[in-house]
Design brief:
It comes from Flagellimonas hadalis. This is N(4)-(Beta-N-acetylglucosaminyl)-L-asparaginase. One of its GO terms (molecular function) is hydrolase activity, acting on carbon-nitrogen (but not peptide) bonds, in linear amides. Keywords: Signal. The protein is 34% helix and 21% strand. An 8-stranded mixed β-sheet has the order 4-3-2-6-5-1-11-12. Strands 7-8-9-10 form a 4-stranded antiparallel β-sheet. It folds into 2 domains: 37 residues, no CATH class; 281 residues, (Glycosyl)asparaginase (Glutamine Phosphoribosylpyrophosphate, subunit 1, domain 1, 4-Layer Sandwich). Helix 2 packs antiparallel against helix 3 and helix 8 packs across helix 9. 48% of the residues are buried. The protein contains 9 helices and 12 strands. The chain has 332 residues and is an alpha+beta fold. The structure holds aspartic acid. The site of aspartic acid has 15 residues, from strand 8.
């Protein structure tokens, strides 16, 4: 936005200079000089929180944190924890669907206003991977911990061991074993990862993303959600972006980083998300078998989203109230 306004102003100024010199060169010219009015600065909307899909309770929780003066980092952590704890959400945290060997493995990451970040990948038996990711960020010199190492670190930090498979996901897995030929399901319905972005009263941006990944994935598979730059990216000077859908495609374009960089170059969150999806589709001409949804926010609190197939929505909560936003799609 700033750069666009700058370019607009520069060209208006240049036009002003040209018309002034034309008046000097030709004294008979009587046309009055154009007045250049500086555009009104965009007033940032704050606080605000957005998340992928229609997770009312998660945004509600994050909004409470923001409204009571809490930081965007606390808001996104506590917001996505609501979905991690909800066993009826079979794509995130406890109650997430297992890999093809029957183990629930979780991925999550978190990023703050200073570019600090933490991530856990392929971690079992811990219900709140986003909080472990935050501990990695705050308590270690590292950014990513994986598998058994992440789990061991979580116990050291006081997290308790839990069985993440529920009766429902265990039964579904047993059904899947009967018919699947041990093949991972990649389809456009396989989603519901929560990615959340927030701006607090100070105007600082943070984000978090958490998932159990693709259902019945090959053991050890990690998607985009815990990868900084792919499933999530925040730059406090510009904005933030997050993704849901088939992670392999998001990783190939470093999707969230791409979207933040496009916003830095002057695109709105909406335009940046559209360009992000188009880049993915350029590498997947005519492929219609996967869904991806991007969500972005800029420093002014403007938001946007775009997806491959219709159906992706995002939830937004600000002083203006809360809203479930339908987004347009590449294949409409
Ligand atoms: N992006 C996640 C992954 O690939 C899945 C999802 O959003 O449903 O692991």
């Amino acid at each position: 936005m700033k750069r666009r306004n700058f370019l607009k102003n520069s060209s208006l100024t240049a036009a002003g200079l040209v018309s002034a010199s034309a008046m000097v060169a030709c004294k008979t010219e009587t046309k009055p000089e154009e007045t250049v009015v500086a555009p009104a600065p965009v007033k940032p909307i704050k606080p605000i929180v957005v998340c992928t899909w229609n997770f009312l309770n998660a945004t509600d929780k994050a909004w409470q944190v923001l409204k009571s003066g809490g930081s965007s980092l606390d808001a996104v952590e506590q917001g996505v924890m609501v979905e991690e704890a909800d066993v009826t959400n079979e794509t995130v945290g406890k109650g997430g669907r297992p890999d093809r060997d029957g183990n629930v493995t979780l991925d999550a990451c978190i990023m703050d206003k200073d570019g600090n970040c933490g991530s856990v990948v392929c971690m079992q038996n811990i219900a709140h991977p986003v909080s472990v990711a935050r501990k990695v960020m705050e308590e270690t010199p590292h950014i990513i911990l994986a598998g058994k190492g992440a789990e061991k670190f979580a116990y050291e930090q006081g997290f308790k061991k839990e069985n993440l498979l529920t009766e429902s996901t265990r039964k579904q897995y047993q059904e899947w074993l009967k018919t699947s030929k041990y093949e991972t399901i990649i389809n456009i319905e396989n989603h519901d990862t929560i990615g959340m972005l927030a701006i607090d009263e100070k105007g600082d941006i943070a984000g978090a993303c958490t998932t159990s990944g693709m259902a019945y994935k090959i053991a050890g598979r990690v998607g985009d959600s815990p990868i900084i730059g792919a499933g999530l990216f925040v730059d406090n000077e510009v904005g933030g972006a997050t993704a849901t859908g088939v992670g392999e495609e998001v990783i190939r374009t470093v999707g969230s980083f791409l979207i933040v960089e496009l916003m830095r170059q002057g695109k709105s969150p909406q335009e940046a998300c559209e360009e992000g999806v188009k880049r993915i589709m350029q590498k997947n001409k005519d492929r219609k078998d996967f869904q991806i949804g991007f969500l972005a926010i800029n420093k002014n609190g403007e938001t946007g989203g775009y997806c491959v197939h219709p159906g992706f929505t995002y939830r937004e909560y600000s002083e203006k109230g809360h809203e479930n936003k339908e987004v347009t799609s590449f294949y409409s």
